[in-house]
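Q: I'm writing up a methods section and want to include an example of the input and output format. Could you take the sequence below and give the corresponding predicted structure tokens, formatted cleanly so I can copy it straight into the document?
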Amino acid sequence: MPAYFVVELDTKNTDAMAEYRAAVPGTLAQYGGRFLVRGGATELIEGEPEPKRIVILEFADAAAVKRWYHSPEYQKILPGRLENASCRAFIVEGA
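A: Here is the clean output for your methods example:
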């Protein structure tokens, strides 16, 4: 069953995030991940607060998401996101 890594970001330092954003694609292929959504306009339909930036990655299954997330390649660059943005990240299994 496909699984999705979803991140909601409120970037605090756009310049510092540039290196992280440039490095993420290189970590995905060997774990079977691909971008479905990478930023773009958002429109709040219900609830609050207004989302800032949404990223959605697709993988074959939740185990593949976890292999990618915990991989040495991704863990090396992850501090670049955590230090420069407020985030919520989660895995969603889909059909």
